[in-house]
Every structure is written in C-alpha cells, then in structure tokens.
Amino acid sequence: MIAAYQDIKIRAVDDIVWIPAIVGSILAFYLLYPNVSLLALKIGMMTAFALAFSFLGQIAAADVIALVVVFADPYAFSMLPIFFATLAFLIGHVLYNRLKGIPRKTTIPVEQFLKEQNWIPLATLKDGKRTEIDEGLDSARDRVEENHEPGSMIEVEYGIPTVAYLGLGYFAYLVYILVFNQGAFLLPL
Fold first, then answer.
1. Closest residue by Cα to residue 88 from 176, 180, 181
2. 129-132 sheet: strands from edge to edge
3. What is the Cα–Cα distance from 3 to 7, expressed in whole angstroms?
4. Which of 8, 150, 152, 156 shows the smallest number of beta carbons within 10 Å?
5. How far is Cα 132 from Cα 119, in angstroms, rounded to an integer?
C-alpha cells in the first residue's frame, strides 16, 4: 500500500518500499515448500508478461516489480480477483479523468511538465521542430529534465499509476478474503 500511495502522490516508488514485499514473496515460497511449483509457475508467467510489456515501453520498472510481487500471493487463483479489482480501479480512474476533462494526449509547456509528475513525454517541440522521445518510460522523463530548453513545449500522454491500481486491487482482494473467508489467514496453505 505504501507503493500505491507513492505512485499516486509523487508518481514514483522508492526502491526501499519493495523490500517488505520481496521478503513476503520469499516467505510465501518458504511456507509452501516443497509445494512451490504452482507459485513458481505463476510468478514466472507474470514476470515474463511484465518484462515483455516493459520491453515494449508500456510499463515502467516499478510496475514490473509490482506485478510480480502482487501476483506472488500463494493462493492458486488469486490472480483473477486481483486482476478484476485492479481493472475496476483503472476503469474508474480513466472515467474520472475523462469526466474532469483531463486529456489522454496534449501539449504542455516544459515548465508545467517539470512540475507535474503524471505526464509521459512523447516529443519536444521548439521553433517548429519536433523531436521524438523514443526511450522507455523510466528514462524518457529523465531525458527531458536533463535536456529541456526554456519556452519549449512537450507533447505528453497522461501516465496511469499502475502500481496504485495494483495495490488497491490487492487490498480489495485481501478485504474480500477477510470478509468471506476469515480462516484463510489462519489455516496452513
């Protein structure tokens, strides 16, 4: 939940936030030993999926870690309710943004871009010259921050807080388990 909060608040997640989640994932393997094959398969599939999306430039490094850690839940079919809860938060937020008139793509001054963390840079515009920003999500913002020219415009896309959606989806899943299956946290796996 701390990662989700940071993703909403500052649109970045500190590396140290992942330590408890990684320890929890390792603990899940330890508690399931020697029956770890399903969990290993689930984590392996999610890792491959997340890395492919990262390689294609669709998600950032924190999103990859969040996907792997959230789906490291030891219950076999936990992926489905987490996925649907995450999807519900994503759709709700996108609809909210549309109702508030927040555009998916727009052009803003570089000064505004530097103040607001929720934009993904696509191209810089200066004196009629357009320069595409082809780097991945993690390095595109850094490139603009390092090489910006005062008075230039940035073509941007609204960046969705994927880690926040995953954190909220996982929290909703835990609430569901607590309400409808209280013994799940007390019974051996």
1. 176
2. 105-109, 153-158, 119-126, 129-132
3. 6
4. 150
5. 15
First-to-final CA distance of the chain: 24
| DSSP assigned state of 16 | G
What does the DSSP assignment read for 96-155? HHHHHT--SEEEEEHHHHHH-TTEEEEEEEETTEEEE--S-HHHHHHHHHHH--TT-EEE
What is the number of residues in the chain? 189
Name the amino acid, one letter, at 162: T
In whole angstroms, what is the distance from residue 165 CA to residue 59 CA?
Answer: 13
- Is 21 within 8 Å of 177 (Cβ atoms)? no
Retrieve residue 19's tokens: 């330590």
Question: Which span out of 35-39, 87-91, 149-153 was modeled with the highest average pLDDT?
Answer: 87-91
Higher pLDDT, 164 or 39: 164
Q: 107 pLDDT exceeds 90?
A: yes
Specify the amino acid at residue 95: L
Task: Provide the token pair at 100.
Answer: 């508030």
pLDDT of 172: 92
With 0-12 / 13-18 / 19 or more C-beta atoms within 10 angstroms meaning exposed / middle / buried, residue 130 is exposed
